[in-house]
Amino acid sequence: MLELEKYKKDVYACARCGVCVYKYNAWSTHRVCPVQEHSAGLEPYNPRGRIALAQGILEGEIKYTESLVKFLTACTTCMNCVQQCGARDMATRGFKIKTPEIIEAMRADLVNLGLAPPAYKALSSRIEKNRNPYAEPKEDRWKWADGLNVSFDKAKTMYYVGCTSCYRRKEIATDTVNILNKLGISFGILEDEWCCGSPLLRTGQKALAEEMARHNLEELKGAETVITSCAGCIKAFRQDYPKMGLEIPFKAVHITEFLSGLIDEGKLKPKEHIAKQVTYHDPCHIGRHMGKGIYDEPRNVLKAIPGIELKEMFPTRENAWCCGAGGGMKVSNPDMTVEIATDRLAHAKEAGAEAIVSSCPFCKTNIADAVKATGSKLEVYDITELLAKSLGV
Amino acid sequence: MTEVKHHVLYNELAAIAGSKYVSDDDCVLFTYSRDSGPHPGKIQGIVARPGSIEEVVEIVKLANRAHTPVVPSGGRAGIYGVSPGSPGRGIVVDMTRLDKVISIDEDNMCATAQAGIRLAEFQTTLEKKGWSIHTACAPWYSDTVGGQLSCVPGGGAAPSTATVGWNRHFVNGMKVVLPTGSVLQTGTGGNVGKSVIWAPEFGGPDFTPMFIGDAGAFGIKVEATYRMFRPPPIVRSGGATFKSFEDIYRFYRSLCLIEPMPCALLMLYTPFSMKLMGAPEEWSSMWRVTGNDEEEVELKLKWIKENLEKAGGKESDHPALKRFTGYLIDMRDAAEMGLWATPGRYALCEVVCSLGDVPKILNTLPPLIAKREKERGMHIHRHENTLVTGPNAHIYTSYLYYDDTDPKQREGILEICKEFFDVAASNGWMADTNQAYTCRTAAKYWTPAFFNFMKTQKQALDPNNIMNPGMWGDLL
Predict the structure, then answer these.
(1) Is residue A240 over pLDDT 80?
(2) Nearest CA in chain A to B96
(3) Which end of chain B is more exposed for a tag (fewer CB within 10 A), N or C?
(4) Does B83 touch chain A (CB under 8 A)?
């Protein structure tokens, strides 16, 4: 049975009205789908077209073939299409058509039918071999922690660092550890931390993702709270693992939730003045994907830093424009991801910001890539970097 | 490696629009084969997404040389089926790359945009400068300027349609790539270089209306100039419930007979529609009032309330009704998010009738539905209303929601639509869209004189019959 069959009701709930392609108004959004805007813009490059493809497959009009691959890989699964869609449950007003899940199901079918693109295969092979998507040696995972006060013992509070912070955005891991230490939080790090599996799930590679999940959960046994730096990791813990039927015996929190809570309790008071006009980029995985969305917490942290002036971009919060890196796009369509991120640079400039701040190492990487590609003067930070600076650590 | 067998015009189209924007991939063609409705799809042979008027012209000229049908495509939010074209061979011309606002002429109060721009984007761009244009109530976000002008008679009904009527009155002119590939600017009275202002027949007849509602059979619209206006600063909305149809009709009729009407929008809902929206199952009316100052708005609301009292209606503050009347402040969300998009896939039975026929039309569809429900053992959820679009033009709308996973339901819905439009046309009620199915139905009821006139015009404009052939029946 095709994975897609599980989403038949979603596919047929689509009225093909096209709001997922274009919704343009003065108060929430200017266009919806980043891939539509940065590709040839033909129908299969937008959410309505992808749902039409799904219907075609379900009706036998279209077969899973190699020609379908380029359309199914070109989606950031950012969920903005779902956010704008009018098809809602009449009673709960909840979203009816879960387009990212439909896309992931079709990608899973491609994988299961042996049609996965080389980029997906290479990704899974890297993760299988090295337990991270970057083909970095396993033994180098904790190099960034050399000289830092880090415990690899099990603790009630565990910091799940994630592959991107370990290998590509080490400053986020370092600053997070320094902040936690400064606050006197007793925490541990897993000695044998594996990839959370999110990149595999986004690209339809469920079996290996489940292996990662089972390992991480086994290692995290005994923890009461698990903090993540990465938006993708927190989605994996909170949403993806339970969907696999796995029980999560701890509270998984994103670092911004954790820090915001401490600010509210008066336990975290940034002191050092940082005179900077910043804007905040909402990562899709802690925004739209989280249901209620982690929107206020990161802003609460930023506002607590003396001297920081927060300037909102348009669009923002639940309508935020994706940075472009999600949904496996960074491996399947690397050029397009950077082009999409340049939109965010333009939004930040329009907002009058000198720095763009996010709370996801993957978003930071992609936005920084766009800065490099365009020669923009915009500074790019993770929220923990500014906080660490303000705390003097 | 398997050699890809391309459409016979692939290389020439790629040379015109760029290979990135041309595709004959089966997956691409499939996604262009259907619209929003239940009507069967038509898979053409190739898709091109041109980026300039010059490219559109070259595509049309190529289609003429190759005697290959052209099917223009806009926001793809149609509901009555896609153009017949020539399955396996026709060229779909996706116009959505032509999506720029070209000029905002404040002195002459007009704005020009490319035809592939979405109405909402055009409108929002103007709003930022304090201007507005009359676009459609729905689908505001999806419809392109070209699609709306081609496929909706009168160019659509505006959110202030009760007072301003149809949008065609506010289209100053348009630029059309004719089926032979030449470019015609209408609204200028034929004078080369004359700007498109609000005096179109000076210097020669105006052909703008000929292209409005032509279903894209007379050419491809590439630009349109709309009359701009300053939007009224005050907008209010309200709703009321009534014990019987007689009461609500008395209210509805009394407001329609006031000239000018006090409300910019007036709608009548059946009890089961209200139930579907989570409101009390009663006859209900909703209105939208606009004005330049409080005094004007209060006076209009006073008239509405007086007529409401006379008819025995009661203003309602039920949360569901309030939510929907709230949407009427900005029609975009009413149209796209709040009302009919909610329950999922649907077919549409939408026609225009006179005020006197409103009671009759409300009793036309239910027996047709009941018959099919009994025959096929299916239940159809629906949503129904009427909307005033001027003194003697009332849009009757019924959304028929169906489970598209069940082919039998889809067939049943299509049978109901077919029967309804035939009954409607025989009563003189015409569909308020000119799209594939409704065009063909309308054409069945043309007089011989009208048919011959249409045929003569089509042949003169389109000697090779390449522009949306078959839209108005087999002979056109």
Answers:
(1) yes
(2) A41
(3) N
(4) no
Interface of B with A in 341-370 (CB under 8 A): 341-346
> Taking residues B279-288, what's their average pLDDT?
94
Hey, are the CB atoms on A87 and B25 less than 8 Å from each other? Answer: no
Mean confidence (pLDDT) of chain B: 91
Which of the residues B1, B19, B28, B31 would you substitute to probe the A interface, choosing the one with the greatest number of A C-beta atoms within 10 Å?
B31
What topology is assigned to B234-431 in CATH? Answer: Vanillyl-alcohol Oxidase; Chain A, domain 3 (3.40.462)
CATH number of the B10-94 domain: 3.30.43.10
Q: Report whether pLDDT(B81) > 80.
A: yes
The CATH T-level fold of domain B101-227 is 3.30.465
Q: What is the pTM of this model?
A: 0.95
Domain boundaries, chain B: 10-94, 101-227, 234-431
Comparing B464 with B474, the larger pLDDT belongs to: B464
All structural domains of chain A, each given as residue ranges with its CATH number in brackets, are: 3-116 (no CATH), 121-263 (3.40.50), 270-391 (3.40.50)
The answer to whether B124 contacts A41, with C-beta atoms less than 8 Å apart, is: no
* Best of A10, A12, A19, A29 to mutate (most B CBs within 10 Å, chain B): A19
**ipTM attached to this prediction:** 0.94
Write the secondary structure of chain B as one string of H (helix), E (strand) and C (coil). CCCCCCCCCHHHHHHHHCHHHEECCHHHHHHCCCCCCCCCCCCCCEEECCCCHHHHHHHHHHHHHCCCCEEEECCCCCCCCCCCCCCCCCEEEECCCCCCEEEEECCCCEEEEECCCEHHHHHHHHHCCCCECCCCCCCCCCCEHHHHHHHCHHHCECCCHHHHCEHHHHEEEEEEECCCCCEEECCCCCCCCCCCCCCCCCCCCCCHHHHCCCCCCCCEEEEEEEECECCCCEEEEEEEEECCHHHHHHHHHHHHCCCCCCCCEEEEECHHHHHHCCCCCCEEEEEEEEECCHHHHHHHHHHHHHHHHHHCCEECCCHHHHHHHHHCCCHHHHHHHHCCCCCCCEEEEEEEECHHHHHHHHCCHHHHHHHHHHHHCCCCEEEEEEEECCCCCEEEEEEEECCCCCHHHHHHHHHHHHHHHHHHHHCCCEECCCCHHHHHHHHHCCCHHHHHHHHHHHHHHCCCCCECCCCCCCCC
A22·B124 Cβ contact <8 A: no
Residue B340 is predicted with a pLDDT of 46
Mutate to test the interface with A, among B23, B30, B348 (most CBs of A within 10 A): B30
pLDDT the model gives residue B198: 74
Q: Does A21 touch chain B (CB under 8 A)?
A: yes
CB contact under 8 A, B30 and A62: yes
